[in-house]
């Protein structure tokens, strides 16, 4: 073989071996610094000259030093729970003012001289006294919507109040009367709370001109008669825990928007047959009174509370003279009366949507035998595991609150004649 050919082949083999092994000593962990001349450019560019609609909220420098005005809500001033005895100066920009849980006894006009933007004032849980409140102090804010003065020592309603007010809370004070001038000009009020006071009289037609009033709370007072001339706009009436004994025959005749009437814990002994024939009435609570005679139930009524009265029978014919399947009653409570037998099963025909009749325990006179109309619940094992597999037979026909109604046939002799009742 020619020597030149051999040298040529050897040279080719040497070059090939160097080509295959050229990455054998490569250091893969070696880091390289980026080129100093290359700058990162974000994909989104922000220009300082463009307005991105981000609000610029200034820090409230005029906030009273005793209070806190959060930067996120510069129209609100929090002065609650600070043991304040007086109201600080209120800036003109403030719309919500919270002064509850302090020791404030009086309200000075000077504090509200600049408060022309106020919409809500909360002065609950203080020591406010009627003779320490400047006259007209709550009438200086033309945009005031809500005033909360509950849990104080007020003996009368502060007046005048701005005509723009919609909600007034005066519960848990020492107010003993309501005069016509106290509520004068309050044509926009929709809710008035006077519960837990000492009110024994509401003068004249003090409430009649509140033509937008929807909710009236006068519970836990000393009323001996119902307030006169309620506005027709009323939807919710609370008169619980008073000493009312009579309701005029036509008292509710014009109050066709009423959806709830609560008059429990009074001394009512009788109501006219069609007293509560109201087209929108959904809840009626007459518990803890002295009623003996039942009355007509409007078709719209869903919840009826008659517990702790003096009923001896529940005449379903009077409650529902026509069975047209349109009655919406779902709950009836009749415990703590003097019923001597179960409610007639006619109730389930008159009120097809009834879900519960709470019969409970009944009152017993000294000479009455202690007959248990309702078996104890849960029932004894012997009764529950009888040979009959039908568990429905073991349950009472009138039951505790947590159980649905179970119909049991009873004699209808207790149904009095509808015409002879009144």
UniProtKB/TrEMBL annotation:
GO cellular component: extracellular space
Biased composition (Basic and acidic residues): 396-406
Keywords, ordered alphabetically: Glycoprotein, Leucine-rich repeat, Repeat, Signal
Residue ranges crossing the lipid bilayer per the database entry: none
All residue ranges annotated as the LRRNT domain in the record: 62-96
Source taxonomy: Eukaryota, Metazoa, Chordata, Craniata, Vertebrata
Signal peptide: 1-21
Keyword Signal: yes
Name of the protein: LRRNT domain-containing protein
Organism: Engystomops pustulosus
Pfam family, one: LRR_8
Residue ranges with Acidic residues bias: 408-422
InterPro entries: Leu-rich_rpt, Leu-rich_rpt_typical-subtyp, LRR_dom_sf, LRRNT, SLRP
Top-level taxonomic group: Eukaryota
Region (Disordered): 382-422
């Amino acid at each position: 073989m020619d020597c030149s050919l051999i040298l040529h082949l050897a040279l080719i083999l040497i070059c090939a071996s160097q080509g295959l092994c050229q990455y054998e000593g490569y250091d893969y962990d070696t880091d390289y610094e980026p080129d100093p001349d290359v700058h990162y450019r974000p994909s989104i560019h922000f220009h300082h000259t463009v307005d991105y609609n981000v609000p610029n909220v200034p820090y409230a420098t005029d906030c009273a030093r005793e209070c806190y005005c959060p930067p996120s809500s510069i129209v609100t001033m929090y002065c609650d729970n600070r043991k304040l005895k007086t109201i600080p100066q209120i800036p003109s920009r403030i719309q919500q003012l919270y002064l509850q849980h302090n020791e404030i006894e009086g309200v000075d006009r000077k504090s509200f001289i600049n408060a022309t933007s106020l919409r809500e004032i909360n002065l609950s849980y203080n020591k406010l006294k009627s003779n320490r409140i400047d006259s007209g102090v709550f009438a200086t804010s033309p945009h005031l919507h809500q005033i909360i003065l509950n849990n104080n020592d007020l003996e009368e309603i502060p007046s005048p109040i701005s005509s723009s007010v919609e909600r007034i809370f005066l519960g848990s004070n020492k107010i003993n009367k309501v005069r016509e001038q106290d509520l004068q000009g309050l044509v926009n009020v929709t809710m008035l709370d006077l519960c837990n006071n000492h009110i024994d009289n509401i003068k004249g037609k003090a409430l009649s001109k509140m033509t937008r009033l929807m909710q009236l709370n006068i519970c836990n007072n000393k009323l001996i008669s119902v307030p006169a001339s309620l506005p027709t706009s009323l939807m919710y009436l609370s008169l619980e825990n008073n000493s009312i004994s009579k309701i005029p025959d036509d008292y509710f005749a014009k109050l066709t928007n009423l959806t709830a009437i609560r008059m429990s814990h009074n001394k009512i002994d009788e109501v006219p047959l069609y007293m509560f024939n109201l087209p929108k009435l959904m809840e009626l609570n007459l518990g803890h009174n002295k009623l003996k005679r039942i009355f007509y139930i409007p078709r719209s009524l869903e919840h009826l509370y008659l517990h702790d009265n003096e009923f001896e029978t529940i005449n379903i014919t009077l409650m529902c003279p026509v069975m047209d399947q349109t009655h919406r009653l779902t709950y009836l409570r009749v415990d703590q009366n003097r019923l001597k037998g179960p409610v007639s099963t006619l109730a389930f025909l008159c009120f097809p949507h009834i879900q519960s009749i709470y019969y409970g325990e009944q009152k017993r006179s000294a000479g009455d035998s202690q007959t248990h109309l309702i078996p104890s619940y849960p029932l004894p094992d012997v009764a529950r595991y009888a040979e009959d597999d039908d568990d429905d037979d073991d349950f009472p026909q009138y039951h505790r609150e947590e159980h649905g109604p179970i119909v049991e046939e009873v004699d209808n002799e207790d149904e009095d004649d509808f015409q002879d009742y009144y």
